[in-house]
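ZP: hey, is the zinc ion complex queued? I don't see it on the tracker
AM: it wasn't, my bad. submitting now with these inputs:
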Amino acid sequence: MHAMVLNQIGAPLEWVERPDPLPGPGEIRIKISACGVCRTDLHVVDGELADPRTPIIPGHEIVGRIDRLGEGVTGLSLGERVGVPWLGHTCRVCPCCLTGHENLCDHPQFTGYSRDGGFATMTIADARFAFPLGESGEDAALAPLLCAGLIGWRAYKIAGKNAGPMPNIGLYGFGAAAHILAQVAQAQGHRIFAFTSSGDIKTQNFARELGAVWAGGSDEAPPEKLDAAIIFAPVGALVPLALQAVRKSGAVVCAGIHMSDIPSFPYRLLWEERKLVSVANLTRQDGVEFLKLAPQLGVKTSITRYPLQQANQALADLRAGAFDGAAVLIP
Ligand SMILES: [Zn+2]
Ligand SMILES: [Zn+2]
């Protein structure tokens, strides 16, 4: 197999050849056909997450076909198309696992961070955490659903739980996750207000093309109060801005795994029962729900393809905001 490997935090990924891995009990081997590039991959490469492991193969939006089954795997078959998300393994015995919060497992493994991921031609996955993808839809177009789509879906559900009815939803940072969630939320009758970096007219136009009723800079006040705001950009300074934009008892959801420090802000921004919450990882239930719903709602991902060996370029372009939607690596 071949892979783009992170040998050292901050260094470029390196193209390597390795012996083909063998699946252990309960695992499957997947021949990868596409892997999305997520902002979390940048956080991994930059060493912004706790306990970085190197060498590691990043990538946690994997689409491919099973080419080998480990001992004891049931319910999946050779040749079946599957997707592998960020949550790659859980312990099943910690309090979080036992109470239905496997996204918060005390001893988890994350794909492309604590176990090797999808910037490769092949990967090994825990069979319990591989989602059957069926045969409709193109591999590369499905890849961003595995994280950008899923985390957006979980953030949206948590926003609804905390804000109550939310006709007006603000999305801060209009990249891979927001461009998928905007379609889901609008199909379910919500109005989308898109916030980008100040002056990023290109992304604001992209948001309008996808149906946003308003798009502007994150330093601008929206024309109406928001019921909920979801922050996808890793920028702590957006938290007080989003709180200022939501109505009484509205909710601000931080959906990223990493964020720069949140500046201090006056208590009145949180007052009147506004809620500020974070979203961590995903549960398999989130995946089952979302992967069923997305095709029903006609979600279309906007993708830019890169050959696997150009993973460094894809990461640099993501950092620079050089493309709309999501980047996908093709082995
Ligand atoms: Zn656990
Ligand atoms: Zn991700």
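AM: back. The mean pLDDT is 97.
ZP: great, adding it to the tracker
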